[in-house]
Design brief:
about 450 residues; alpha+beta; D-Maltodextrin-Binding Protein, domain 2; 2 domains; 5-stranded mixed sheet; about 45% helix; globular
């Protein structure tokens, strides 16, 4: 009798093992931004409708994610089956043969619904290599209640001179409210994403047409001086530890009178469940200085399948779901329409539910559509990109220059000396990488 029960138990265990083995487990590497955290929380809906696919999540801070994913893909390690990347990496990695193309999207995915500029940024030779989860530009957030109390009016598009005056008037560190919050955390996609737009609007550029670095130009010096003044005089303490996520939290907690950053935060800041200032947050275009060119960026977080994955079809199935109209509807129904991933689909901006919930939607759509990566600066440049340069060495260059900008903020170096060091490093990296390329 005992032997029979043991045999039956063994059969049950074997059956459970077979069922578990039948499911394909894919590992997804993603950044820890609120929209991606929401995706992880809603993913049981995908597993329910796709019982043969199980999801394993690796969620990391932005800089760490970039480093680990780049290393994994470049070395063909195959640790990840789906990765979060941007419109910087996608065309470069596609040309390197590191990504699987999305060349047979199902009809119900409605690829024609994707915004053209976003789709183009994730393509190489007309072929999509990543699908956009959300897309963003940059805008100015401000506290309408604080502006009203101080008798100030925010223009539709402020200048940096006006921003500095507003910050000075509204700075109230005794009550833990600061005139302005900006990214100070070093990284090509952190402080340099914002700071590059400052350089652009002050009339600067990363390189001239011969790929010679321009980091000691008067425009770079003016932008760096303004950046340092804003954060040292009117910013929160410990600013070099604040990236996008930390700054978003500060603003949502009522500690920033203004914040210039990604449009994707608009939904989070407008949601009373995540923001203490939801009722008083205002929106304006990103500031300008000497030229509107390159004053606001165009960026997308997207999902792609590395060539090194041996579970490519399962990973594609998940990515198609996570970037679909169906997923956007799921977020709208479960979390509220103000929280849906923005900037990817025309249908989102045509949706009456979204229009009603997101007062900021027209401003965000305008910012995304008017950002032009092919014409990002006042003077001509040999590269594409507003807050980045679309060449492989830029990842190392941008990160190193970001560290220099942090050193300028903390006073470890002066603006002039810091930019001199940054230009020297950039020049050395470009020469080592073979720039300018021989025709």
């Amino acid at each position: 009798m005992k032997t029979r029960y043991l045999a039956a138990g063994a059969l049950l265990a074997a059956g459970s093992l077979t069922t578990a083995q039948a499911a394909t487990q894919i590992t997804i590497a993603t950044v820890n931004n609120p929209d991606m955290v929401t995706m992880q929380k809603l993913s049981p809906a995908f597993e329910k409708s796709h019982p043969n696919i199980k999801l394993n999540w690796v969620t990391l801070p932005e800089n760490e994610l970039r480093q680990k994913v780049t290393t994994d893909i470049a070395t063909n390690a195959g640790q990840y089956d789906a990765v979060m990347l941007s419109n910087y990496e996608t065309p470069i990695w596609a040309r390197n043969g590191w990504l699987v193309p999305f060349d047979n999207l199902p009809a119900d995915y409605k690829a024609d619904d994707l915004l053209g500029s976003v789709k183009e940024g994730l393509s190489s030779d007309g072929q999509l290599y990543a699908l956009p989860f959300y897309a963003e530009s940059s805008i100015t957030y401000y506290r309408k209640d604080l502006f009203k109390k101080a008798g100030l009016t925010m223009p539709e598009q402020p200048t940096y001179d006006q921003v500095q005056k507003f910050a000075a008037k509204l700075n109230d560190p005794k009550n833990h409210t600061y005139g302005i919050c900006l990214r100070g955390l070093p990284g090509w996609g952190e402080n340099m994403a914002f700071f590059s737009t400052m350089v652009n609007t002050y009339g600067g550029r990363w390189f001239d047409m011969q790929w010679k670095p321009q980091l000691t130009s008067s425009a770079w010096k003016q932008a760096a001086t303004e950046y340092k003044t804003l954060l040292n005089k009117y910013g929160p303490p410990g600013v070099t530890s604040n990236g996008f996520t930390e700054s978003e939290t500060l603003f949502a907690n009522g500690q920033c009178a203004m914040w210039i950053d990604s449009t994707v935060a608009a939904g989070y800041l407008s949601d009373p469940s995540s923001s203490k200032v939801a009722d008083s947050v205002g929106f304006a275009q990103a500031p300008v200085a000497k030229t509107p060119k390159g004053s606001h960026w165009l960026y997308s977080w997207a999902l792609a399948v590395p060539k090194s994955s041996n579970k490519q079809q399962a990973a594609k199935t998940f990515i198609e779901w996570a970037t679909s109209q169906e997923y956007i509807k799921l977020v709208g129904n479960e979390r509220g329409w103000v929280s849906v991933p923005p900037g990817t689909r025309k249908s989102t901006y045509d949706n009456p539910n979204y229009k009603k919930a997101a007062a900021f939607a027209p401003l965000v759509e305008k910012a995304i559509q008017t950002a032009d990566p092919t014409n990002p600066t006042q003077e001509k440049v040999p590269y594409t990109g507003i807050q980045f340069v679309d060449i492989p060495p830029f990842q190392a260059i941008g990160t190193r220059v970001g560290q220099t900008m942090a050193a300028i903020l903390t006073g470890r170096t002066s603006v002039e000396q810091g930019l001199k060091q940054a230009e020297s490093f950039t020049d050395r990296m470009m020469k080592q990488s073979g720039y300018p390329k021989k025709q």
